[in-house]
Amino acid sequence: MNIVGPELDAADECEQLLRSLPRWFGIESALLEYVKATRTLPTFAAYELDLILGFISLKEHCPGAWEVSCIAVHPDNHGQGVGRRLHEQAEIWLLNQGTHFLQVKTLAASHPSPEYARTRGFYERMGYHPLEVFIDLWGSRLPVLQLIKCIHHS
Description:
- It contains four helices and seven strands; from the N terminus they run E-H-H-E-E-E-H-E-H-E-E.
- By secondary structure, the protein is an alpha+beta fold.
- It is globular and about 40 Å long.
- The two termini are 27 Å apart.
């Protein structure tokens, strides 16, 4: 597996990948925003030969404070360490940017989605800690859990 980025020209590949994950990215307007963001935000992608396996896009909110804007791994590659490798590569880059905090937002446990339960488990294994639940940030039926982790400087 080869990881490239943070400058990436792979919006079409990222869109195809997101469309392979309708249980996570089933809202068309949001999917198109994630694709658009890959053109401007720092984005890393994992490839096997010339096939995209996954990508991660990052957004800076304040100096030293970033967010995982989007992370997606093709369903054929779930559980194979692709998301972990993307995340680790992004964190190395973020350390070099002087980052202290990294956050991510996902559906909260009060939402019944088994897919997002797996997503929360992934973030916990990556060292994130729950910070706050927003009842209506994404709409009344989509409770949002904000998680955060410290990026350690040695």
